[in-house]
Write a structure and sequence with these properties.
The chain has about 450 residues and is of the alpha/beta class. The protein folds into 2 domains: about 90 residues, Sandwich (Immunoglobulin-like), CATH 2.60.40.1120; about 350 residues, Glycosidases (TIM Barrel). Helix content is about 35%, strand content about 20%. It contains 14 helices and 17 strands. An 8-stranded parallel barrel has the order 3-4-5-7-8-9-10-11, surrounded by 4 helices. Helix 12 links the parallel strand 9 and strand 10. Helix 7 packs across helix 8.
Length: about 450
Amino acid sequence: MVFIFMWGFRTAADPLDGADARIKKYRTREVALKLKDEKGAVISGARAQINMERHQFLFGCNLFALNTFPNDRQNFSYQKLWSELFNYATLPFYLKYTGGREGEGKFDRDQEMLDWCRSRKIVIKGHPLIWHEAGGNAEWLPSDPVQLEAALKDRVQSVVSQFSGRIQYWDVLNEPTMAWRSDTPVAKWENAIGPVKAYEKSLKWAKEADPRALYLVNDYNIHPFDVINKYIGNPKLAVKMLKDPVEHYSVSYKNFVAAVKKDGYAPDAVGIQSHMHKENWSLWILWWLCENFSGLNLPIHFTETTVLSGDHRSRFDWDDWSKNLPWPTTAKGEEEQAQYVEQYYKLLFSEPGVEAITWWDFTDYKAWLNAPAGLIRADASPKPAYEKLHHLIREKWWTNANEQVNGDGEVRFRGFCGDYSVTVAGRKGSGFFTIDCRKKDGQEITVSFSRKNLGGKEDD
């Protein structure tokens, strides 16, 4: 059955066919930019320099290695290369490392990252609020389920409230369809009430604390046939699933999201993890995921993307990462990583339902599992994949223009959606405006120039 399923993919057109046309359709807009001075008079007869400042699409990466290198040169290189590529950062809020007793948080490290991001106008996501694995549990958590639920509610609401207005996105309940395989305190709580109810409670707590933030569900349980193969290869795991009385949707993450959406608890985006330590995913699978999850009519975020620049492995130690060493980056692996990264980002950027891609991790230095997963090496030097991605995001998919302003004070152009600045030859100051992909072509935007640098406003 799986063979027939995959054979159907390979008889279809190449998923990258037409990608450039789709990118133009879904990620750019025609704009009529009206330029006015501080008195409301049109500005004409001059040239306008239009510079893109940041994408509307969220090109992201976790920021876990910020200022952790052994010397200042490497720390500076990490910061420079990171900020010259991304506009979206994931910050760590694992309970094991940031949660004290009775709701007391230890957020010095997060605050350092947050300040760094805000000074650069980088969009921020906190990860995760609740997680059943070891990182989402702490020794002080009570074993009593009623007390545990109260502690989790306090944790969620205290953290979200503390960072309200500064963190725009949160991963609420991490990997909810897979908690049934664990026996940590948080997993026991999830399994007692079921993942759907656990997610709905978690989302309700978070929204009470900050109704303006955007909340994601995030999981890796996305290939039904992969899950089935795991059960076939591990009878004990299959028996445990069958004996468990809780309805877990363990074969279908999509069904889980559909269930919470039906109950009125839809996430603001569906998070899909794409770690490729064992092998790079087929582009057919990637395309199928986008098409399949688009049926939920919710934005899609690829939340944890890992593509190696070294050998793939079928087995590795999940807990003691030192046992995975050595796991070096190689010249051949770096070239293959660069080629795949170009295809991966091009395909996802061409899919209208996808709104974000987050890389995991930026550097090989202290990377998850000690894998050669970075876009930069352990010494903070860029790999070919970094150069390739920088070319795509900051050159090919980037709009800078120098245009003549017509007699009506207008400049017409097509640009990638995002934030812009504009200057006019012979005039001091700048104007600012945004091209919004949620709106159609032909956007008429007025930009006012003044000493206060008033931003752009779209006409009614």
